[in-house]
Structure formats: structure tokens, C-alpha cells
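Example record for the data management plan.
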Amino acid sequence: MANALQEQLLKAGLASKQKARDVKTQQRRQKKAKVDDGSSEFKQQVAEQKLAQAAKDKALNEERFAKAQAQGQVRSLITEFTRSALTIPTSGDVKFNFTLGTKIYSIYLTEALQQSLLRGQLGIVRYEDKSYLVPHKLAERVQLLVPEWCGYLWTKENNTQEIIEQDDPYADYVIPDDLIW
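Corresponding structural encoding:
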């Protein structure tokens, strides 16, 4: 008696058996989706753990920064990278994008400076709304002491070459390593 309307529609030819089965399947899936399997609690725990870890990392970075600042390392680091920085050309023809935090910054460079950045000879440090091209070793020191200032630093882990397979149909096509976006 529960499916009286369904039976009437089937007899009248307004619905098919396949359509009736599809409706039952859809209803079953909706009931199953409403059942709480505890995954929301797990997701909430994971989110809380991530927030706690982020707060812990931030506190550790602030502690490291305060310690370095107390020792005068940060002040000397600022003077060192402002003195040893290469001048960014005003008539650069290649746009180089880098990210710092959640923002994307762009600078215009010459082809030679771009290649130096991509080979790992230079790094980009951003301090007080100004970008500096500095030697790689100095950029590494900035990364260790004040990671919020290091805009671009070439690392071997991020730029490993993939092994080319023997049967790769696209082996003849070169993928550029200086992706311009």
C-alpha cells in the first residue's frame, strides 16, 4: 500500500520500472548520506590540530626572530643584503613572478639575471616593500633567520629533474623550467 501511487503510475504508463528503481536508489542514497559516521568529528579534530601546529610554528618563528634580533643578527643581515644587493634594472624585458606568503610579486629582469635566479646563483629578498637581488648564500641566511622576507630561493629539492622513460612519446618536447605566468 506504501507504493500505491507508484503502482498507479506504472499501470497508466506514465513511469517505467527503471525510473521507479532509480527513485528508490536515490532515496536510499539520501538516507545513507544523512547518517553521521563520525567523520565530521575527525575532520574537526584534524582542523584543530592544524591550527595548533600553525600557532606553535608561529610562536617558534617569533621566538627565533626575537632571539636573533636581540643578538643584532637581523640588523646586520639587513645592512648586509642592502649593501650586497644587485640593482634591479629599470629596463628589464623579462617578467619574473615570485610568491611571498599569499601574495604574488613581479619584477622585470634581464635574461642573464633571470637565468642566474633559475640556476640558484641569486635569490630575492623582500624587505619594507622593496625587492633585493642577493647572492644565494645570503638569501639562505635570510631564509633561516626571517623566512617571511625570503621571496624566491632556488632549492635542489624543488627543482629535481624527472627521469625520462624510454617509451615516452613526448620525450622530444622540451618542458621549459622557467615557467612564466
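Summary line stored alongside the record: The longest helix spans residues 39-70.
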